[in-house]
Amino acid sequence: MKVLMVYPEFPNTYWSFKYALPLAGKSSSYPPLGLMTISGLLPGNWEKRLVDMNVEALTDNDLRWADVVFASAMIVQQPSLIEVIKRAKAFGLRVVLGGPLASAGAELVATPDHIFVGEAEAGLTDLLRDLESGRALPVYQANGKPDLAHVQPADLSLIDMRHYSSMAVQYSRGCPFSCEFCDIIEIYGRVPRTKTSDQMLVEFDSLYKMGWRGSIFIVDDNFIGNKKNVKEFLPDLCRWMKEHHHPFRLFTEASLNLADDEPLLDLMRNANFHRVLLGIETPVEESLKAAKKGQNTRRDLIASVRKIQSYGIEVMGAFIVGFDQDPADIFQRQIDFIRQSAIPIAMVGLLTALPETQLWRRLKKEGRLLEESTGDNTDCSLNFETRMNRQTVLEGYKTILKTLYHPREFYARAQASLKNTSSTGFSTAEIKSITMLLAGVRVLFKLGLLDASRKEFWRFLRRIYCERRDLLPDAMVLAAMGYHVRKLTEQYCGPLASS
């Protein structure tokens, strides 16, 4: 059987970095790790082909080649998925859908022939058997949560790594916390499961042998969810990185209680973690408590961020407005917090009720749900009735974005963040590579010559050069990321004043 694995296109969002990627000579941030992992579960005699629509077009020839289409998608990819399903059915192909969209309980606009709900390692073999025999059912459900110690590594042969700015690996699934708005605990559970050190090092070895050098995203929704296991893994990773002269720069997502564990922070620094995304959400403790985000309460949030930064790890922050408990001054409080904590890339979003989350169930019971979530909490849409006046929330949200991503404001936070960086995560070989040199030229040309805010860009680079010239590559990366979020902000909120 010939299986065509298709990853639908992401729309342009704050998380896509589509304006920054061309400056690095890349088409997408990360490869479709889920489909690459599924590849290892398919029968050995099946032929496999993967089309990531974020880096290449899905052609009629691809569809003519296939016997069946496997698609994986997030909610935000559903518009592209609809077109994939329509095109596949026009060629008489069956479509199998899995991944977060299938498992989240979202209402599907276009119906695939077969849906697999849950983690594929726990039951996909039944679907594969029935597909071969021609007796596949409409819906299959995973049988529990799989032990990650038996998960196969991603099939790297399916992709051209040159298209991507970062590779992706997964260490764990699940999170021990119970945030009301989060769908991760609904899909993967509250007991974090992890791979073994040996499994992880095999994946790092594979990437190294295939010539990858640079950024790797450890895609866990909470890398430190199982602290005991991660502390056993990191010393092995530190040794591997040292033996291989630190070929990779690592970043991940974690909960804010990372700040409480200095030995863990030290291990992450030694393993060359250079960035972490924290779910900070809001400086308003009443909102945190109501959202069941207790791990962020009873602490000095800014001190926690600075603790992590003091280990040379850049902090990206996820923030939310629209909680029922938000006070009238929430918008200025978010701006003040992000300024004081020197978080350059602050992903501020509107609260959204994702399908089958605790928040979704509560709002449905209260009669406040309006529509399905778009899956993008930054597109200035609200899918429920807010306690605060709806227009006030939307206008306040836009004020936050316009303030934070004004060039002068952004570059000031980027400079303050870099002051806390212990050393660049780039290897000497990577800095001297033709790929890095060309990326630098593109950034200088686009932001230094063509951009309306070029004066602020050159002022920023001059300051970094005088204070920490070894961090110029890091500064260029931040400038490119800042350019992307500024362009998105202009789309949503109108032109920002140039400096």
C-alpha end-to-end distance: 59 Å
Q: Helical region count?
A: 19
Residue share in helix: 40-55%
β-strand number = 14
Major sheet: arrangement of strands:
2-1-3-4-5-6
Would you identify the regions where 5 or more consecutive residues have pLDDT less than 50?
none
SS-derived structural category: alpha/beta
Give the overall form: globular
Summarize model confidence as the mean pLDDT. 96
Give a short account of the largest sheet: 6 strands, parallel
Radius of gyration: 22 Å
Q: What proportion strand?
A: 5-15%
Structural description of this entry:
This protein is α/β, with parallel strands linked by helices. Helix content is 41%, strand content 14%. The protein has helices at 33-38, 60-65, 78-90, 100-103, 124-133, 184-188, 197-209, 227-243, 262-270, 285-290, 301-309, 330-341, 358-365, 390-404, 407-419, 428-431, 434-450, 454-468, 472-493, and strands at residues 2-7, 47-52, 68-72, 94-98, 114-117, 139-141, 166-169, 172-173, 193-194, 214-218, 248-254, 273-281, 314-321, 346-350. Strand 1, helix 1 and strand 2 (47-52) form a beta-alpha-beta unit.
